[in-house]
């Protein structure tokens, strides 16, 4: 049917039926094309055609299902064109839209919808939103924890004290949810939890020595012993070459004896651990005096590695296994039983909560389907038999990423129980990279090890021919993984049978396609992070590739011809995008390289989403200073920093919204700030009024309409993407309104949880991002894709071991591992069981990381560039050089397992490549070379670069900002001239750019005579000093508060003034202490004075303003042509001013105690302050200030201040 020419092995996969068939399909082997062809041939078979609705095709993603359905449809259209009258083919085309080509979750959902009544499920159920379910889980768990506290069970309280010390239970809550999630990846979660707890129930030492933990330890110990024997033999051979090294043999012999002793008791587990526990390490003997370091160092290093590994084994597994150990294990067992009890109660409460809302979650889909297909005894139900009869064959794509629940489901709708296996499984163990999603790659591995290559009911076929990549890519991949991957680390024995074979035919051959390895020494790059250094290196490489002459040509599969390399042909793959992607995007922008970053996160960090969320927060509750200030500063309202300071000074003691409201209520003019405040207050009031009548979706649209913000972001840098992010926000609002939570407050909580739990869908992707630009994406995101050029940076980033560092470790097979915690004694005792889990999880982590590296390398079609960096590259090369002394082709489990990043793995393997000789030329080491490795050496170039290589690169210099170029020019100046340089305006650096009027007055006052009674405020707290008399400053603040709240329009007598003071005290505007310090008669005297009467007249006309804040800019001052002051911002508050016919009058209250003859000093002291008040008021209002008065409340006297114009 197809024009594609299939290989013999591919044809065998396509035509083999009537059995369970496992296809191990290596990267680029055409598994999807083979799978589609298999379906087409089954449908169109002339003898025994199989209807499309008699097949179950399970894919890993919805996108893969759509693609497969499309391919099958295209094939059917082609077949119908060849035979237009074939009604059967037309029927198959009609059945295709409803065909069972889907993800396993989609199939399970179909089972539930068809047979919901079998499990008493309401058919109107809905699938819960992820955030809604997270909120529900947290709510239910909080209630469960509270219930346990209420019951006061001593076991529970001891558990909490042990695993959640302090005031928060967050650690225990996270642990409960983590174990609950893992349990749901098992067909019977409760049974798995029970079995995991039982593993810790160790009653005696005989049981302990037969436990799976000891079995694992024994395997680890003797595998490491085999590796150590190789190291020992290597050291002995070197010693034999030089008689001066003979003394070192004594130490080596001791360690050899340890290894032999352990091997001699291999069949007696108790003896093994007794010996291991009692190992000691004598001081190592040195070579004879005068022996050159380069001669003895290799032996010294090998003996050191043997000693270190023996110590590691001893620390991990060499415990005293006695009655005390059993008691400690019993304590841990009790703690984990309590944990299991909490999880069980939580699980039941959570299921009940979902049932109340007629809601199911993602895990329920699989488990409910399983409950329909299996009875309580684990036997297939009638429904399962119906499906088994219906499906002639079940095909599973990406089988290596299945879990136990999915495996059980598939088995129970197959015909295996009838003795007619009919499951077709295709995948690649080397590409299993979803263990973090609880995939169980061991399912694939077990079948691979047990299925036969010969004809049988359980058969395997291997596809190793790669039709994607050039020979250089395959050679590099094979060279690395032959040395690195094994059954122990990687779960695959990577030999010739697992290696990739060339299947692609590229017409153009050139060394430009050779793999490149770039090693960068970070020392010398000043002011740049590792991410920025590597980003610049990648940018330079891209520019070099794009500028090659003759140009680099790549094959275009759509055009079926070669064309020049374009930006869109290049992908940068990263193990983690967070932090790295942003640095690369920013750097590429400075180089002029177009780039699209496929971030799975970052949505909540975009300025448009932050602004919109802040605006919704203050619509919900404006008494939130940070969101409010962020919104006011945003372009939609555009308040400046100075304007915000002015508002703040209205009342520094209240929240910002209250200060804003006070300012709004006191507006009498029409300044730009007044207009902004009025606009903001009115629109905020409007939004707060309509939020309950409009839908949330309608409210957001109303905001866009009122502010024009949606249109505004389109004019920002990256405008189309920003608008797409806002569209995505509207979609999120729409989805939220479909769930059970309602209202703005709950939406904001919903979004906070979305951010908190890292449910971040990433920024919106635009259609034009598929244009001519470099792509940055994660390795996981690249699975199933391919690119002409792959660049893999950040190789030196350490593996993420957070899961291994938890207080309680959880493993699918070994259950729980925790140190024994004695809460009362505050003691934590190391547990060998936890060490087992730690070792096993570390091994699995390294295996997964190795497979991830394999996936990254095999995405490349034509060229591969690997980039890593180190602070001291020579030191790293010396470390990698240990590979030169390894005799076996494989580097050994110990060596591979000891690596902490991709760069270590790659360079340990490449050190044995002929191109690496220059790297270790200065180490004195040599590598004779293994014939088997030499025969598969890839064509590659290894570059070692420092900052000097980039400093001289014009591309780097061009990419520097003007500021960076200025810095570089200064660094190149003569040292003496730089040291002699002085800043012209040095005096200005010691001046504040912002000062209050009071501060300016204080500084100028230092040359004046101080008033006799000027006081200093005590800084001693009341609980030490006791109640102290009020200072002048404190008394002044009290008077100002009362004067601000005084009604100038009322007829005030001393009694009414006293009543007003009491009222202010009751409203907590002033304190009791402040109230006692205020004399009503002094206020009455002010009101009866001439200036008080004038103020009352102005108040009656609405022309009196109290407590008016201002911020004013002052130009730099010149003296003899020299700048003596910088631009300054002056701020203050005018106590009182009012307008009369000839101009404005300023009144400032003073509570200083003034002695006889001190009035002139007072005038002099406050003249500067009044001058600034006058200038600020005239600038702000455009009106002349005709008079300024100080009113001394202490002596009831009005003092006029004359200010020259």
Automatic annotation (TrEMBL):
SUPFAM superfamilies: P-loop containing nucleoside triphosphate hydrolases (SSF52540), Restriction endonuclease-like (SSF52980). Its cofactor is Mg(2+). PROSITE patterns: UVRD_HELICASE_ATP_BIND, UVRD_HELICASE_CTER. GO terms for biological process: double-strand break repair via homologous recombination. Keywords: ATP-binding, DNA damage, DNA repair, DNA-binding, Exonuclease, Helicase, Hydrolase, Isomerase, Nuclease, Nucleotide-binding. One of its GO terms (molecular function) is 3'-5' exonuclease activity. One of its GO terms (cellular component) is DNA helicase complex. Residues 4-470 form the UvrD-like helicase ATP-binding domain. It catalyses: ATP + H2O = ADP + phosphate + H(+); Couples ATP hydrolysis with the unwinding of duplex DNA by translocating in the 3'-5' direction. The keyword RNA-binding does not apply. It comes from the Bacteria. ATP binds at residues 25-32. Its EC number is 3.1.-.-, 5.6.2.4. Residues 491-784 form the UvrD-like helicase C-terminal domain. Heterodimer of AddA and AddB/RexB. Belongs to the helicase family. AddA subfamily. The heterodimer acts as both an ATP-dependent DNA helicase and an ATP-dependent, dual-direction single-stranded exonuclease. Recognizes the chi site generating a DNA molecule suitable for the initiation of homologous recombination. The AddA nuclease domain is required for chi fragment generation; this subunit has the helicase and 3' -> 5' nuclease activities. This is ATP-dependent helicase/nuclease subunit A. The gene is addA.
């Amino acid at each position: 049917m197809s024009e594609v020419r299939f290989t013999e092995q591919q044809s065998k996969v396509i035509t083999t039926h009537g059995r369970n068939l496992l296809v191990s399909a290596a990267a680029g082997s055409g598994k999807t094309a083979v799978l589609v062809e298999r379906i087409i041939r089954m449908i169109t078979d002339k003898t025994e055609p199989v209807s499309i609705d008699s097949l179950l095709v399970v894919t890993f993603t919805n996108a893969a299902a759509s693609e497969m359905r499309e391919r099958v449809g295209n094939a059917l259209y082609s077949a119908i064109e060849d035979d237009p009258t074939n009604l059967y083919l037309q029927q198959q085309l009609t059945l295709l839209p409803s065909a069972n080509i889907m993800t396993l979750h989609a199939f399970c959902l179909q089972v539930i919808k068809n047979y919901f009544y079998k499990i008493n499920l309401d058919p109107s159920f809905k699938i819960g939103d992820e955030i809604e379910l997270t909120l529900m889980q947290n709510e239910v768990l909080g209630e469960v924890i509270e219930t346990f506290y209420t019951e006061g069970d001593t076991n529970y309280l001891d558990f909490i004290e042990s695993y959640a010390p302090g005031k928060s239970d967050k650690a225990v809550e996270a642990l409960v949810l983590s174990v609950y999630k893992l349990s749901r990846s098992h067909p019977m979660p409760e049974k798995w939890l029970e079995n995991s707890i039982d593993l810790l129930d160790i009653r005696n030492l005989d049981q302990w020595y037969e436990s799976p933990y000891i079995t694992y330890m024994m395997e680890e110990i003797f595998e490491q012993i085999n590796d150590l024997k190789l190291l020992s033999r290597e050291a002995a051979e070197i010693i034999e070459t030089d008689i001066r090294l003979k003394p070192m043999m004594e130490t080596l012999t001791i360690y050899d004896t340890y290894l032999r002793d352990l091997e001699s008791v291999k069949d007696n587990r108790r003896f093994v651990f007794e010996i291991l526990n009692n190992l000691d390490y004598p001081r190592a003997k040195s070579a004879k005096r005068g022996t050159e370091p380069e001669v003895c160092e290799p032996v010294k290093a090998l003996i050191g590695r043997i000693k270190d590994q023996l110590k590691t084994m001893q620390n991990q597994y060499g415990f005293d296994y006695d009655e005390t150990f059993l008691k400690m294990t019993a304590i841990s067992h009790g703690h984990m039983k309590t944990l299991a009890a909490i999880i069980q109660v939580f699980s039941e409460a959570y299921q009940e909560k979902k049932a109340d809302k007629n809601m199911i979650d993602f895990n329920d889909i699989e488990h409910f389907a399983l409950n329909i297909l299996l009875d309580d005894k684990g036997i297939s139900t009638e429904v399962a038999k119906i499906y088994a009869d219906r499906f002639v064959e079940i095909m599973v794509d990406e089988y290596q990423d299945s879990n136990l629940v999915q495996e059980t489901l598939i088995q129970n709708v197959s015909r295996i129980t009838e003795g007619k296996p009919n499951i077709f499984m295709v995948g690649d163990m080397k590409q299993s990279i979803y263990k973090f999603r609880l995939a169980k790659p061991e399912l694939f591995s077990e079948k691979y090890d047990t299925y036969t290559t010969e004809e049988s009911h359980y058969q395997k076929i291997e596809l190793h021919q790669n039709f994607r990549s050039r020979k250089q890519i395959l050679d590099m991949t094979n060279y690395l993984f032959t040395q690195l991957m094994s059954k122990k680390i990687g779960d695959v024995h990577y030999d010739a049978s697992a290696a990739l074979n060339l299947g692609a035919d590229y017409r153009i051959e050139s060394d430009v396609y050779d793999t490149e390895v770039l090693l960068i020494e970070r020392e010398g790059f000043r002011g740049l992070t590792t991410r920025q250094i590597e980003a610049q290196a990648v940018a330079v490489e891209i520019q070099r590739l794009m500028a090659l002459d003759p140009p680099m040509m790549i094959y275009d599969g759509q055009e079926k011809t070669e064309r020049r390399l374009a930006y869109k042909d290049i992908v940068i793959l990263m193990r983690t995008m967070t932090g790295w992607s942003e640095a690369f995007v920013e750097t590429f922008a400075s180089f002029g390289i177009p780039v699209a970053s496929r971030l799975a996160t970052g949505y909540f960090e975009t300025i448009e989403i932050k602004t919109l969320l802040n605006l919704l927060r203050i619509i919900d509750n404006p008494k939130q200073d940070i969101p409010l200030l962020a919104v006011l500063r945003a372009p939609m309202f555009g308040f400046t920093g100075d304007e915000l300071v002015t508002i703040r000074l209205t009342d520094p003691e209240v929240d910002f919204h209250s200060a804003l409201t006070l300012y709004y209520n006191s507006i009498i003019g029409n300044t730009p700030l007044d207009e902004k405040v009025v606009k903001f207050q009115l629109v905020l009031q409007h939004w707060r009024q309509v939020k309950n009548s409009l839908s949330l979706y309608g409210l957001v649209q109303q905001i866009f309409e009122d502010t024009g913000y949606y249109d505004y972001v389109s004019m920002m840098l990256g405008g189309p993407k920003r608008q797409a992010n806002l569209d995505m926000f509207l979609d999120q609002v729409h989805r939220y309104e479909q769930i059970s939570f309602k209202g703005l407050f709950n939406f904001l909580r919903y979004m906070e949880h979305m951010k908190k739990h890292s449910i971040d869908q990433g920024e919106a992707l635009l259609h034009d991002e598929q244009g001519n630009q470099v792509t940055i994406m994660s390795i996981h995101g690249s699975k199933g894709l391919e690119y002409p050029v792959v660049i893999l940076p950040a190789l030196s980033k350490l593996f993420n071991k957070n899961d291994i560092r938890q207080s309680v470790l959880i493993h699918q097979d070994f259950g729980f591992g925790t140190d024994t915690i004695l809460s009362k004694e505050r003691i934590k005792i190391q547990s060998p069981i936890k060490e087992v889990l730690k070792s096993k999880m570390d091994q699995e982590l390294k295996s997964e990381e190795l497979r991830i590296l394999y996936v990254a390398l095999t995405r490349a079609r034509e060229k591969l560039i690997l980039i890593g960096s180190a602070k001291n590259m020579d030191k790293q090369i010396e470390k990698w050089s240990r590979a030169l002394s390894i005799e076996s082709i494989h580097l050994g489990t110990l060596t591979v397992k000891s690596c902490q990043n991709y760069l270590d793995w790659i360079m340990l393997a490449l050190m044995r490549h002929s191109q690496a000789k220059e790297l270790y030329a200065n180490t004195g080491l040599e590598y004779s070379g293994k014939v088997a490795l030499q025969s598969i050496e890839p064509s590659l170039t290894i570059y070692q670069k420092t900052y000097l290589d980039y400093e001289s690169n014009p591309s780097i210099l061009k990419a520097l900002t003007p500021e960076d170029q200025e810095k570089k020019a200064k660094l190149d100046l003569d040292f003496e001239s730089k040291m002699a340089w002085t800043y012209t305006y040095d005096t200005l650096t010691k001046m504040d750019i912002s000062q209050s009027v009071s501060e300016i007055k204080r500084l100028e006052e230092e040359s004046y005579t101080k008033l006799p009674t000027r006081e200093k405020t005590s800084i001693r707290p009341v609980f030490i000093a006791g109640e102290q008399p009020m200072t002048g400053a404190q008394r002044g603040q009290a008077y100002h508060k009362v004067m601000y709240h005084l009604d100038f329009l009322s007829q005030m007598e001393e009694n009414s003034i006293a009543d007003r003071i009491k009222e202010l005290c009751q409203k907590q505007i002033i304190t009791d202490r402040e109230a006692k310090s205020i004399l009503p008669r002094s206020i009455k005297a002010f009101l009866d004075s001439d200036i008080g009467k004038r103020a009352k007249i102005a108040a009656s006309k609405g022309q009196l303003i109290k407590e008016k804040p201002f911020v004013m800019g002052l130009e730099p001052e010149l003296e003899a042509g020299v700048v003596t002051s910088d631009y300054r911002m002056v701020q203050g508050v005018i106590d009182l001013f009012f307008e009369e016919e000839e101009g404005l009058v300023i009144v400032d209250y003073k509570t200083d105690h003034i002695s006889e003859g001190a009035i002139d000093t007072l005038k002099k002291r406050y003249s500067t302050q009044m001058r600034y008040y006058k200038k600020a008021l005239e600038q702000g209002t455009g009106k002349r200030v005709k008079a300024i008065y100080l009113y001394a409340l202490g002596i009831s006297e009005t003092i006029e201040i004359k200010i020259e114009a």
